[in-house]
Amino acid sequence: MRARPVPSLTAFQSGTQKLRVGVVVLDNFTLNAFSGFVDALRLAADTGCRSRQIECGWVIMGKGPVRASCGLSISPDALPVDPRRFDYVAVAGGNDYPTRVQPAWLTEYLWEADKLGIPLIGLCTGTFNIARAGLMDGRTACVHWNVHEYFAEQFPKVEAISDRIFLDVGDRITCAGSTGSQDLALHLINRHCGAEKAQQSLRHMVLNDRRDASSPQAHFASEIRDLRDPIVRRCATIMEQNLDTPFLTESLAEEVGLSSRQLSRRFQASLGMTPSRYFRSLRVRYGAWRLVHSTAPVSTIAAEVGFVDASHFQREFSKQYQMTPAKYRKSPGASLVAAKI
Fold first, then answer.
1. Which of 7, 75, 180, 225 could bridge across to 165 with cysteines, CB 3.0–4.6 Å?
2. How far is CA 147 from the centre of its chain?
3. DSSP letter string over 22-39?
4. DSSP code string of 140-200
């Protein structure tokens, strides 16, 4: 059986595509974000899943073979190509974002693309790389909730948000990654190639519809995704991303442009409790999840979820679960309860 040739630059060089994307893939990249983005382009580019770069063109770029965080190795099609050949330059980031390492060639390439006015796309942790190049300062970046704290710590000049799946502000597009990268690709396909091509890609991926940029990320607290009040949903998301920080209803209300009384009324209508009570409940519930999914001491977990000391956490935990954290951790049904949180 003859191996199918990898996509080359031949089709791309024809210049007939309506959408042309250069994708820089880095070592330890997250496979789902990378493959979902590229495959959505592929399925819209041709008819009958023949993968010819007709409507869309893409080039996978890098400096030698790279390995995904799951262990899969790939060889990029080319070294970094002149950014003027693309409508967008995307970076598929790696899972080594905590190390704060940035190849010099990548920083230079991103600066070159930016100077030429080519919009930059951060796929999953690729946003770290764009920010590390100094090209996100003073801007807002959409990041996955799981890396929110890492990003905020490393880039204090960038506002990090995790209340949506991607954010498109024109010259910067940042994406939380995972399946959200498919929705971002569909967004670009719809813009450049039309709704019919976006729908074609959707059908082949066996999806019913593409999600808008403002669609919420999947949350630890399952009820957040079902909240109909967008203000309450946004506030609940902010709470979830800041479980270890002090909470004031007044500050949260100011963040969303309401008075404290107005915000409390909306929380009561949506969740049957005040914002402060809901926040306390979130902290305790996440503490319960940590008890089941880690061996960390109760005192450590208490600090992680924002309680000033372990005794305060234990009191609140006992009120909510009618048992101590230590007893809960040993109870046979704890993992089932935690899975439903």
1. 180
2. 8
3. EEEE-TTB-HHHHHHHHH
4. EEE--GGGHHHHHHH-TTSEEE-SSSEEE-SSEEEE--TTHHHHHHHHHHHHHH-HHHHHH
Q: Per the structure block, which two tokens stand in for 232?
A: 């309450």
* pTM metric for this prediction: 0.69
| Cβ pair 106, 129 in contact under 8 A | yes
Taken as a whole, the chain contains a residue count of 341
Q: Do residues 145 and 240 touch, judged by C-beta distance below 8 A? A: yes
Per-residue CA distances from 186 to 119, 271, 273 (Å): 16, 34, 38
pLDDT tens per residue across span 277-286 = 999 999 999 8
Secondary structure of residue 17 in the 3-state scheme: coil
Distance CA 152, CA 142 (A): 11
Integer Cα distance of 202 and 43 in angstroms: 8
Residue 259 CA neighbour count, 13 Å, CB half: 3
